[in-house]
Design a protein that fits this description.
By secondary structure, the chain is an alpha+beta fold. The protein has 5 helices and 5 strands. The radius of gyration is 15 Å and the shape is globular.
Length: 168
């Protein structure tokens, strides 16, 4: 089966019903995509499929054949942090860090369609991404900071607008 992951064509020889998460982690070595719950409830495994946030733990490989899959590895530009990642660093957001890749991927998708989100917008967009350490106030501040950074740097890479339903 062929797909594009982080801008490169890859071919894997696994059954088409294998979850994308396991293909990314075990077949392609993309360990930044985390296994959290396996039921699309926590958001730790969030990736973008054709620009839409998706839970890779419940997305079958057949669902992404021939499509563009982006992980947190590809959101920055040539060794540079994406403005969302920069805001996370500035705000010292992660505590344990386990959920942060999913939080960041959901934030990139949010800011692509809503460059000036309110606290309510942020809470709604990230409500399906759980943080066991409870860093939600820091996450919210980082989203606002990322919006500022993106406004200052319009050339930053952006995701496509998410479809209704949050990509689950």
């Amino acid at each position: 089966m062929k797909l594009r992951v982080d801008g490169r064509e890859v071919e894997v020889d696994v059954p088409e019903d294998v979850p994308l998460l396991w293909v990314l982690r075990e077949e392609l070595g993309v360990r930044e995509v985390k296994f959290g719950c396996g039921k699309a409830l926590c958001g730790a495994c969030t990736v973008h499929v054709d620009g839409q946030p998706r839970r890779s733990c419940v997305t079958g490989l057949a669902d992404v054949e021939g499509r563009e899959v982006r992980t947190i590895r590809s959101i920055g530009a040539e060794g540079m942090l994406h403005p969302v990642q920069q805001a996370w660093v500035e705000g010292n957001v992660p505590q344990c860090g386990y959920c942060q890749a999913g939080q960041i991927m959901s934030t990139v998708a949010l800011l692509a369609v809503n460059p000036k989100p309110t606290d309510e917008d942020i809470d709604a967009a990230l409500s399906a991404n759980l943080c066991r350490c409870g860093t939600y106030p820091r996450i919210r501040r980082a989203v606002h900071r990322a919006a500022e950074l993106l406004a200052q740097s319009p050339k930053a890479p952006k995701a496509k607008a998410p479809k209704a339903g949050g990509g689950r």
